[in-house]
Amino acid sequence: MRVAILISGGGSNMTALADSMTGDHPARPVLVLSNRPDAGGLARADARGIPTAAVDHRPYKGDRAAFEAALHDTLCAAQPDLICLAGFMRVLTEGFVARWQGRMINIHPSLLPKYRGLDTHARALEAGDTEAGCTVHEVTPALDDGPILGQARVPVRAGDTPDSLAARVLEAEHRLYPAVLRRLAEGDRKRLDLPQR
Ligand code: GRF
Questions:
Q1: Which CATH class is domain 1-100?
Q2: Distance, CA 23 to ligand 1 centroid (Å)?
Q3: Residue 21 near residue 48 (C-beta atoms within 8 A)
Q4: N or C: which end of the chain has fewer CB within 10 A?
Q5: Nearest-atom index, ligand 1, CA of 13
Q6: 101: exposed, middle or buried (C-beta count within 10 Å: 0-12, 13-18, 19+)?
Q7: Residue 185 pLDDT more than 90?
Q8: Per the database record, which ranges form the Formyl transferase N-terminal domain (predicted)?
Q9: Spatial CA neighbour of 86 closest among 164, 178, 167
């Protein structure tokens, strides 16, 4: 299975995914693509010998269709079977999602359906939640709403700040995303639930 990974930032999830695809793993990373040419993750991918590309959204100045057409062309050139969004911070339109539906997944830092969108950790703390976590789901046109493929849970601890909780959840993301990817690559779409750690 050929896997393209879309990032916008440091790419720690991308690194976890890429580093998992070795040996007898049935998938390989074929492209790391960023909408930010300065994303730290591009250098990390390059250092691993993975082809990289950037499609900067800024020159498109709000012309989402043109930006997504460029994104689509760059992706098609790499012929991926699966696209993993990993901290990709652009909302994708229905048209783009429809072209890749069933072949595009995302990781979100909350236990969906709770806290779609941004600031998930601050919202979990504000609500007094005792547990937080992350979700890997299929990407559908509605934001953070597709079928859930896996979740991992972490405790919320006394004195947690959004940053300390984010760090704990991020560690869980790095366990969950490669585990779900491996299952998908092996043809298993059954939901995976990792116990709290
Ligand atoms: C992760 O928390 C991911 O869930 C969210 O953005 C963050 C990206 O981190 N969507 P990284 O770029 O993978 O380090």
A1: alpha beta
A2: 26
A3: no
A4: C
A5: 13
A6: middle
A7: yes
A8: 1-181
A9: 178
Task: Look up the ipTM and state it.
Answer: 0.93
Question: 74 vs 11, 53, 135, CA distance in Å?
Answer: 19, 8, 27
State if residue 107 touches ligand 1 by the CB under 6 angstroms criterion.
yes
C-alpha distance from residue 130 to each of 125, 127, 144, 156, 157 (Å): 8, 9, 22, 5, 7
The 10s digit of each residue's pLDDT in 117-158 is: 999 999 999 999 999 999 999 999 888 899 999 999 999 999
Cα 98 to averaged position of ligand 1 atoms, centre (Å):
23
Distance CA 15, CA 19 (A): 6
Amino acid at 137: H
User: Where along the chain do the CATH 3.40.50.170 domains lie?
Assistant: 1-100, 108-197
* Residue 85 CA, closest ligand 1 atom number: 10
The pick from 170, 171, 176, 181 for probing ligand 1's pocket by mutation, whose C-beta has the most ligand atoms within 8 angstroms, reads 170
Instruction: Tell me: cis bond preceding 51? Omega within 30 of 0 counts.
Output: no
Catalytic residue among 25, 57, 72, 108: 108
Give the position, in ligand 1's atom list, of the atom nearest the Cα of 41.
12
Task: Tell me yes or no: is domain 108-197 CATH 3.40.50.170.
Answer: yes
Determine if residue 106 is labeled as part of a ligand binding site. Answer: yes
| Helix %, strand %, coil % of the chain (to 5) | 35, 20, 40
